[in-house]
Description:
Layout: E1 14-22, H1 40-44, E2 46-47, E3 50-51, H2 54-64, E4 69-73, H3 77-80, H4 85-94, E5 98-103, H5 130-148, E6 154-157, H6 164-173, E7 177-178, E8 199-201, E9 204-206, E10 211-217, E11 220-225, H7 233-246, E12 250-255, E13 261-263, E14 271-273, H8 275-290, E15 295-297, H9 304-309, H10 321-336
Amino acid sequence: MHGTESPVTPDKPTQVCISIDTEFSIAGHFECAEHLPVSDVMVYGEVDGREQALGFLLETFERYGIDATFFLECANYFYFGDDPMQRVAERINAAGQDIQLHVHPVWLNFVDGQVPGNFPRNDYCSGRSFDDLKRVFELCIEVFRRWVGRPPLAIRTGSLVADDNVFRVMGALGIPLSSNVATGVFAPEPALFHDSGRHLIHGVMEVPVFTYRDMRLPGRAHRKSLQITSCSWPEMKSLLRRARRAGVENIVILTHPSEFIKKSDYRYTRITRNRVNQRRLEKLCAFIHDNPGEFESASFGANAGPWTASELQQPFVAVPSAHAVVRKLHNKLNDTLWAY
Length: 340
């Protein structure tokens, strides 16, 4: 959006969906069998007897009256069994937050022949045959039903990597919603390249992670998807204001519980709270709460009806490049200093 454009403010509040990919980590197990996958520590993030990850998220959402969507990774069942992720699902359900399905297929390598079919040792839902991916999703939907008590209404693929076949499989399985695209994270094939809005693909309504222009470089505009861990609060606030003035109706933000703690290594040997990311989330939630006529929180579950009813084209939004420069410095400082 350029400064000369006239505002096209929506009559209703702009919906902001905070989506949380809730997952465990292989943690180098395929490279070294002695390195076992990591579970609880990266989801709960307990430091000095207080949860700085999942607990922090749920407490913050309750304090500000925020509805969010937790995309719960279910393929990890094939390594860990029902516990510990089922306990995570129960916590989220008890807090009244929405839960949808997240799938990292790499976990299916741990079934040791107990499940029919051969699963490639990679973590992408793309590049698979229709039947292979359908089997992956069916297995994960079955786990999701057991943990959550209902089938999912939406699926998000691992690492936000998807191809046309992903949507064909979802359509065949009757899953009405997806959030598989974040063009600032992964550039999909042209037919799937959407920066925001809602787009019907093989009967499935894709609601992408919101992507915007954060810097104009020589010859091209740099795209960035909206994430708590990589976007400063001044940048987020500016983006939300500019998006509303441009007439944007729906914004999806991406985060993970593990982004609210810092870790000494990929094994999570030592952790501490991530004060910077926690403050960003608190300011975002307070902003939504304090501007009820302009913004409201939204979840996939609560909006499945209206979101699947119609597609939505939205303008591409830009923020000043200065925000990106300041943000990069702030993130570098946060990554470098353990106690910052």
